[in-house]
Amino acid sequence: MSGHVWPKGTLGLNYPKFLQRYGLEARGEPAPLTGGEDNRLARIATDRGDVVIREYLHSRHRKVSAEVALLEHLADGGFPTPKPIHPLLGERVALLAGNPVVVFPFVSGAVPEAMTEALAVRCGALLARMHTVTAGWADERIPVIDRRGILEQAAASDVKLAGARFWRVEARGFLERHAAALERLAALPSGPLHHDLHRQNLLVDGDEVVAVLDFDELNHGPLVLDLARWCHYAAVEQEDLRLPAGLAAALVAGYERVRPLSAAERELLPLAFDLVGIVDASSFLMWAAPYLDIESVGGCRSWKAYLANRGGAALTPL
């Protein structure tokens, strides 16, 4: 392993012994994978093909167990995501120094170089397939994000950054302006959300998406929030931080090929887009920015993207 750079440190495993629990024989040394911000990932060859060992650095055993159960269900339903490999005995989720560890088959593919309208159509269809395959899925271990609660915290916070007063006023104003609509949004069809679908969490082979990765942000909520989060990521990737209307239209078109949106879901999608933007920005400004070299709320791209897209103009005509 001395020839590899492990950006988050090694997993600290006896790999041959660990893989024996899964009926696998290690063939060679592990190599780090750099994808994923919140996990350690190692790829290693075995007698049954390459596998990826994933150590979760922030998610706890209960949540990861819910993720594993959902991934198995999705993979069994034909959804393109790696199905976790079961150990021969014991729990599906191992523990390493208190951190959950799961083994996945390695999937070959490339991260798309850019988000195109054709890829946006496929992303929409994939989200709809996930929502359809998991319809009625109930697992109390899947967390629910209190987005309005996060904005309440933001409005009352004492974050000391330039521009923080405007951000706090906007968080309070958002809650007041949209109180009734947020109640309607919460009542829309709900289920498990990927909540982190962007191009870095896709693997493609030519025109085909061969894997959807990283369900670490799995939570339960209104399904349109998955579309809204995708749109937020697409906006943040743009130089001007504005969501391209063509990408948004392609996403929704792909989604509706599989699962048509209700009139209420279409109406509230622009609000959902604003909501995920200001919540993402508020979470960063409260819980990450104080530990980073950031002097102004303007250092948060999610905040600037929220302001650039406020009102959901790119989604309103859909």
TrEMBL record:
* MF-aspect GO terms: amino acid kinase activity
Report the Pfam families cross-referenced here: APH (PF01636)
Membrane-spanning regions, if any? none
| Domain Aminoglycoside phosphotransferase stretches | 32-261
Enumerate the InterPro entries for this protein. Answer: Aminoglycoside_PTrfase, Kinase-like_dom_sf, Pseudomonas-type_ThrB
Give the family from UniProt.
Belongs to the pseudomonas-type ThrB family.
Q: What's the protein here called?
A: Aminoglycoside phosphotransferase domain-containing protein
State the taxonomy lineage: Bacteria, Bacillati, Actinomycetota, Actinomycetes, Glycomycetales
